[in-house]
Amino acid sequence: MNCRPSCAACCIAPSITSPLPGMPNGKPAGVPCVQLDGELRCKVFGQPQRPDLCGGLQPSAEMCGASREHALAWLNELELATRPTMQAHSAHQLTSRSSTSNSKVALPGITPPAPRRP
Fold it and tell me: Dihedral through CA 115, CA 51, CA 61, CA 65, nearest 10?
């Protein structure tokens, strides 16, 4: 499968924690990468300074779906499901609350999108 022209969902939705040209502290989720050109194509594609995350995201029917909107929503769900600071913060809050009361607190399950199949 090839990337959809003018999509760039994978350059917008996920956060990138490693430095990249023009974004030395990485990129927050939902923010377009500064390396997108006017046609929403990656200016560092195939170059060594391209983050590993970018190279690891490969287009698939499940991730890309039938529209750019589907891809953005799918990647946003993946971002939310794999955000370590949010999960750790929530777990800490629930653990703190449960230690002060006799009631049991169940941590909500997080179901990320199914893994891609080759």
Answer: 110
Domain range for 27: 9-99
Q: Is residue 17 part of a domain?
A: yes
What separation in angstroms does the CA of 62 have from each of 1, 10, 32? Answer: 11, 13, 22
Considering the domain boundaries, does residue 59 fall inside one? yes
- Do the domain assignments include residue 14? yes
Residue with tokens 């590993």: 52
pLDDT tens for the 118 residues of the chain, in order? 899 999 999 999 999 999 999 999 999 999 999 999 999 999 999 999 999 989 888 999 999 999 999 999 999 999 999 887 654 444 444 443 433 333 333 333 434 455 445 4
Euclidean distance between CA atoms 46 and 32, whole angstroms: 19
Query: pTM surpassing 0.90?
Result: no
Which amino acid would we find at residue 76? N
